Amino acid sequence: MIVSKGGAMGTSSEVLSLMQSIFANVSDAILVIDQEGRIVKANAALEQMTGWTEEELIRDKHICELCLGMATCMEETSCADCFFKRVQMPSFEMRLRTKSGVDYPVAASSARLEDESQGKLVMILRDMSAQQRVEKERYQYKLTNFAIQAQEEERKRIARELHDGVGQALYSILVGLNVVRQRELSEPVMQHVAELVNMTSKAMEEVKRMALELRPSALDDLGLLPALRSLMKRVEKTFHIQVELHVQGEKRRYSAAMETALYRIVQEAMTNTAKYAKASHLGIMFENREKEIVVTIVDDGVGFEVEKTLKIGKGLGVFGMKERAQLLGGTVDIRSAPEEGTTVIVRIPVPKEGVEDEHSCLDRR
């Protein structure tokens, strides 16, 4: 009879049966290696991980044929420091080679069995590919979010420099030129000054337009809807497209990240319509629902084949729109077909109360 630590009694056959059941059914791969490095025992999980059957593993495989090297967070560990040379390694990472030739990371631990086992080594392996994929996606998310934030900050800085620096300098030049115009000048000089005034005025307008495109001050000062209305006026004036905005629900401020993302998505959609759609009308429906913001942009343009356009790499703006929405847990759905116009549906979930930042105050404008 065998007595467990808790005092329960059990026969050696029962314990052996339990251990065999664990060995066969545990989700982690378990293998036993002899002193020469040959696999002498493997469970079903290892077969599933590697693609080799137990018979193939035991008959033909050396541990070095499955192991592509141990790894640490800093560097690859060479075979000179192999786990097989140690009595015990409670935790390490290695690359596992499969029958199909694919390799992927596994978390491993190893321990040398007692003397009567003739120095055999037992290893336990756990598939880390899914976890690493999640970590990679999380890292990509953080990197994308950082890049977009940095881009917006740089846009804001350049827009401010254009307005306060270049814009003010041009305004000073314009004032000086107007002072000169008040003097008695010959006709050729007066004409030349008038041309300079005209050129300076156009340059001021261009600087103003560039600053607005980079980062409209209305977005920070007044909020999303006033900024969208200002954008609509510029699109109507520049591209001669009739734009209508319909708002449903309470008008208020949202988080800075949400307002910026929605503004950029709508801006990209309107720019695409103006450049490519040959549309005469564009409608925007802004819906403030209980749990989400839904923005629908519809044009009556020539339309396009969505999948084909994305496949050949002409939809970089579309990818940017979707990326911005995804960072906020939202989606962008684009529906279009040749000669049927285009509809863009944006859905962004509204954060719970207490999560929004300093822009969460009501906007009654």
UniProtKB/TrEMBL annotation:
Cofactor binding, per record: Binds 1 [4Fe-4S] cluster.
Chain positions recorded as [4Fe-4S] cluster binding sites: 64, 67, 79, 82
Record GO terms (molecular function): 4 iron, 4 sulfur cluster binding; ATP binding; iron ion binding; phosphorelay sensor kinase activity; protein dimerization activity
EC number: 2.7.13.3
Residue ranges of domain Histidine kinase in the record: 161-352
Domain PAS: from-to ranges: 15-58
Protein localization: Cytoplasm
Keywords noted in UniProt: 4Fe-4S, ATP-binding, Cytoplasm, Iron, Iron-sulfur, Kinase, Metal-binding, Nucleotide-binding, Phosphoprotein, Transferase, Two-component regulatory system
Post-translational modifications: Autophosphorylated.
Residues where Phosphohistidine is found: 163
Cofactor requirement: [4Fe-4S] cluster
Annotated Gene Ontology cellular component terms: cytoplasm; membrane
Annotated function: Member of the two-component regulatory system NreB/NreC involved in the control of dissimilatory nitrate/nitrite reduction in response to oxygen. NreB functions as a direct oxygen sensor histidine kinase which is autophosphorylated, in the absence of oxygen, probably at the conserved histidine residue, and transfers its phosphate group probably to a conserved aspartate residue of NreC. NreB/NreC activates the expression of the nitrate (narGHJI) and nitrite (nir) reductase operons, as well as the putative nitrate transporter gene narT.
Protein name: Sensor histidine kinase
Lineage: Bacteria, Bacillati, Bacillota, Bacilli, Bacillales
